[in-house]
Every structure is written in C-alpha cells, then in structure tokens.
Amino acid sequence: MAISDWPEDERPRERLLAQGASVLSDAELLAIFLRVGVRGKSAVDLARELIGEFGGLNRLFVATQAEFSAVRGMGPAKYAQLQAVLEMARRTLGEEMRQGALFSSPGAVRDYLRLHLAGLPYEVFFALWLDAQNRLIADEELFRGTLTQTSVYPREVVKAALRHNAAAVVLAHNHPSGLAEPSRADELLTRELTRALALVDVRVLDHFIVAGQAQPLSFSERGLL
Predict the structure, then answer these.
(1) Of 44, 128, 139, 173, which residue is 20 to 30 A from 99 by alpha carbon distance?
(2) 213-222 as b/e, with b when 16 or more CB fall inside 10 Å?
(3) Which residues pair with 17 in a beta bridge?
(4) 90-120: per-residue pLDDT in tens?
(5) What is the pTM of this model?
(6) β-bridge mates for residue 127, sequence order
C-alpha cells in the first residue's frame, strides 16, 4: 500500500510536521528523504530494506555510490542528494563549533565526529584543531589505516599543529569493530601525543573513540587524559 493511502496521522511527513522529527523511526525519516518507493514497496518499506541491507544509518551514510546504487530503486541522483544532506549537517555543526568555544556544546562535538567517522570500514585518526579560545580552526584526517590498526606518527601530528597555528586539539579515531573501549595501545598513543604536542605548547583537550551507534567515548571523562 502506498503511503498516500495510509491514514493521515500515520504518514511519516504528516507526523513529523505535527509532532517533530524526533518521534519518527530511522526508516520513517529515511522514507521522507526517499519520497517515493518502488513497485510493490512503499517508501517506508524501501527505507527499511536499505537500513537492513547496510546494517544501520551509519553504514548507509558511508556507502560508496556503487554500493548504494546496487539497491533497486537507488541511483546516482539519490546518492548525490544523500551526500548533500550529510555535508550540510557537517557544515552546520562545524559553523556552530567555529562560532563558540568547542566544549560549550559537547553534544555538537560528538555529533560532528560521528558524522565523519561512524560506520567507516577502516580506521581513521582525526584532529579538531582549536585556537586559544577553543574555537574550531580546522578538522583534519591525519592517518588512515586498516580494519584493525592505524600507524600514527607524533612528528606528523606536531607538524600539522604548527601548520594550523593551533593552541589546542581534540583527537579522535574510530573503531570499525563497533567496540568503543580504549585499548592499551590507544592509551599509550594518547600519552605520547600529549607529551609531543606539549613541546610546542599545544594542549590535548580530549581524545574520542567513535564506534557504531554508541556515543563517542571521551578519554577525559574516563580520567585517561
């Protein structure tokens, strides 16, 4: 049955307008983006299929064009629209963090990191470079690794800090396994980078681990920094 044939108070778009986006499921939100389904499937059915195919929104968002277009009813136009929506979300959060001290909105920091790192099938080491007022100067992917390991070179991190004239940094990396717990190697690397950056008067404010749908784990909150 097409969504237009549903009772009005059950249609995703009408529910969003009446009650707000937060009341909708992932599939319903995605259905509004898709707008229409395919023969024999409503937009909600197609959205559920997409989420099931990729194992969640995070994996869907980082899918390649080929992977996305392999699902019946999807194609380059929808892929481009999805990437545009994601980039607007990233830029909106980036503007918020540039306009004020980074940790005046800790939720925005976590959301920003999740948009960049969650769902990636490989490990990435990421930095948010800050000025003396803890406002965002730039974000940067410093290193990219395999499914299990990233080689991070303190000398290169220090060079990047100097290049951006940063006063502080928030470090982040993802765990493609979906487990947010820091390893012993993560803790040792954080201490090594903190010491190296201190030599050029750059403070490490936090180190986040992004993993799956969970909230990014903060080293600072864990007492590991």
Answers:
(1) 173
(2) eeebbbbeee
(3) none
(4) 787 777 767 766 666 667 788 888 888 887 8
(5) 0.70
(6) 140, 171
